[in-house]
């Protein structure tokens, strides 16, 4: 049986842990709010970009002039998986659920006799995948030093992907990231980014159907600029969603940890008090029986 | 005078969304003005200043954009800017820095096509520097 001193130490240590998890939860909550606003602020651009792109691309589809980023290489053999995870742990199942989705996808592709490469954004996903797919990790990009993820970060990664594509290193790129739904629910999502998937235009497009666009400079040149930018925007969206999800996941993980620590403290205090009382009773019995013996 | 819906968005946020009468846009092949009922047009931008006239002839709101796209459609004008800063907050030293970066890039690049692009970028920045000062 644990002595009183052991129990006291134990309680103190659990209390200290609880303080840390509580603080982490509060930090995550503050960061979450910021990340959510950033994700919301980036949405209008992505939406309008999609509209412009679907306008342009619907006319270009099937045309032999269509850039490779839109039309694809005509093959479906080599796949690049872009896995967006966090750089830090202690956020519940956040990293492993994205890695699992990417892993299942990769296994399916491998089973079909295709080639797979990974580009990891965030070290945690790379740590998991490196064990399962040794030698397939192309590179790991860490955003640990960046405090607020911005367009320039996304652009740098997008440039890498587009360059790799330009050098004919892969045929299809798919991005895995966590979509932020709410604090308790983040949905691991897969999205194809190269060749670009053009969303079907909504009703608003009817308005433009009849209109003939003028292009300055030419249609192809605009598409050439627009498509790499689209990759960057999709990445930015993923990075921001992922950042918000990470904080959300951490917040609920830390909330659980704080609660568990609370339960543990309660249990330990109970045991401590029982032991203390038992000891007092024992001492009293010793004194009384000693007195009686006289 | 008729107004139209004008939106200026950068990847990080929506800067302007309002009814205006006249906007002057720094297109890749020259500045152009947009009034209500403009014909549909899609143009790339060069670094420059967007002038927004809420009422024609009034004092314009000036914003710096660093490249992007302008989309004129029957619903209005949308500018997708890579980066947009209101002129009042614009930092000239940052521009000087990016000119310097562009010069370094030019010195580093290999290949004719890449060199041509780097040179073009530098020229645009220099041209823009002349506009602000």
UniProtKB/TrEMBL annotation, chain A:
**A Pfam family matched by this chain, by name?**
ATP-synt
Q: Which CDD domains match?
A: F1-ATPase_gamma (cd12151)
Keyword tags: ATP synthesis, Cell inner membrane, Cell membrane, CF(1), Hydrogen ion transport, Ion transport, Membrane, Transport
Report if keyword Transport is assigned. Answer: yes
Report the function annotation for this chain.
Produces ATP from ADP in the presence of a proton gradient across the membrane. The gamma chain is believed to be important in regulating ATPase activity and the flow of protons through the CF(0) complex.
Q: Which PANTHER family does this one have?
A: ATP SYNTHASE GAMMA CHAIN (PTHR11693), ATP SYNTHASE SUBUNIT GAMMA, MITOCHONDRIAL (PTHR11693:SF22)
- What's the protein name? ATP synthase gamma chain
Report the source organism.
Hansschlegelia zhihuaiae
UniProtKB/TrEMBL annotation, chain B:
Q: Cite a single Pfam family from the UniProt record.
A: ATP-synt_DE_N
Q: Where is this chain primarily localised?
A: membrane
| Cleaved signal peptide residues | none
This entry's Gene Ontology molecular function terms read:
ATP binding; proton-transporting ATP synthase activity, rotational mechanism
GO CC annotation: endomembrane system; plasma membrane; proton-transporting ATP synthase complex
Q: Which NCBIfam families match?
A: ATP_synt_epsi, PRK00571.2-4, PRK13449.1
The job of this chain, per UniProt, is described as: Produces ATP from ADP in the presence of a proton gradient across the membrane.
The molecule here is called ATP synthase epsilon chain
């Amino acid at each position: 049986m644990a002595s009183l001193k052991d129990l006291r130490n134990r309680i103190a240590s659990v209390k200290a842990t609880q303080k840390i998890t509580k603080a982490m939860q509060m930090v995550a909550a503050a960061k979450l709010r910021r990340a959510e606003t950033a994700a919301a602020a980036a949405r209008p651009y992505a939406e309008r970009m999609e509209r412009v792109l679907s306008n342009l691309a619907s006319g270009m589809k099937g045309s032999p002039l269509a850039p490779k980023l839109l039309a694809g290489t005509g093959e479906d053999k080599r796949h690049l998986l872009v896995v967006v995870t966090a750089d830090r742990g202690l956020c519940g199942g956040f990293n492993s659920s994205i890695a699992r989705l990417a892993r299942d996808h990769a296994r399916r592709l491998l089973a079909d006799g295709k080639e797979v490469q990974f580009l990891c954004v965030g070290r945690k996903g790379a740590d998991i995948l490196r064990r399962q797919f040794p030698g397939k990790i192309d590179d790991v990009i860490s955003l640990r030093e960046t405090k607020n993820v911005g367009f320039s970060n996304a652009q740098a990664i997008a440039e890498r992907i587009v360059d790799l594509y330009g050098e004919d290193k892969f045929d299809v790129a798919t991005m895995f990231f966590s979509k932020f739904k709410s604090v308790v629910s983040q949905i691991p999502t897969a999205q194809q980014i190269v060749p670009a998937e053009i969303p079907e235009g909504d009703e608003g497009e009817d308005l433009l159907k009849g209109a003939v666009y003028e292009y300055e400079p030419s249609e192809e040149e605009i598409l050439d600029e627009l498509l790499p930018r689209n990759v960057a925007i999709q990445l930015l969206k993923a990075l921001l969603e992922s950042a918000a999800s990470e904080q959300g996941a951490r917040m609920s993980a830390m909330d659980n940890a704080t609660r568990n620590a609370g339960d543990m403290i309660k249990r330990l205090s109970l045991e401590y008090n029982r032991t203390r009382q038992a000891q007092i009773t024992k001492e009293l019995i010793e004194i009384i029986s000693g007195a009686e013996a006289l | 005078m008729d107004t139209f819906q004008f939106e200026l968005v950068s990847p990080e946020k929506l800067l302007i969304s309002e009814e205006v009468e006249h906007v002057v846009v720094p297109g890749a092949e020259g500045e152009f003005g947009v009034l209500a009922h403009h014909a549909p047009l899609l143009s790339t931008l060069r670094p420059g200043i967007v002038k927004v006239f809420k009422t024609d002839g009034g004092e314009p709101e000036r914003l710096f954009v660093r490249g992007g796209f302008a989309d004129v459609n029957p619903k209005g004008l949308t500018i997708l800017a890579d980066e947009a800063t209101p002129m009042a907050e614009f930092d000239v030293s940052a521009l000087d820095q990016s000119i310097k970066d562009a010069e370094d890039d030019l010195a580093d690049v290999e290949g004719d096509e890449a060199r041509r692009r780097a040179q073009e970028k530098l020229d645009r920045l220099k041209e823009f520097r002349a506009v602000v000062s």
